Amino acid sequence: MPNNRTPPRTRLILVRHGESEGNRDRTFTPSPEVPITVVGQAQARAAGSLIAQHFRPVRLVASPYARACQTAAIIGAALALEVEVDAALREQSFGVFAGRPYASLLTDASYHEGPRWHWRPQGGESLLDVSARVVPAFERMTRDNAGCDVVLVSHGGVMLALCAFVTGSWEGLRVTPNAGVVLVEHGDGGYGTPVWFEG
Description:
This protein is an alpha/beta fold and about 200 residues long. The protein has 5 helices and 7 strands; from the N terminus they run βααβαβαβαβββ. Helix 4 (about 125-145) packs across helix 5 (about 155-165). It is globular, with a radius of gyration of 17 Å.
């Protein structure tokens, strides 16, 4: 008899790191070693609890940056999973703006010249550059974990790039809040619409 069962869907659970000292101070982080705050730790615990209630992840993969690894370690404690690191998930480089206030980028004339995702700060990356880096890793994780739940802890820019890839457009996307969770499902040869998971 033919097997008409639908193959299980792969669920990719995207998590932004908890509040970092840079987020708190409204500055672009000067180095990858900037940690999360006490607020960020609480946010990570809440995300871990939410994921444990609704999913059964088999892997937990994080950006190598301290704020993502610390968030992932807290989530991993709730899921009994070790943290794996993938350098492709690191945040967009803001080049000359590292260590400067968020508002300082408004003084860069090129920031106003076109769509946000085309803007490349001096010495840094555009969101299109980030997409070129993270999408192959995302697709590899999808292939390697078919039918399973996988948690990916990264950054606002990385999650924007992944959601743009999945939806086919940068328009209308929003930056996920600290420790926010976005669910992307894969099945039937394609990705579903991202869902900002509210619990």
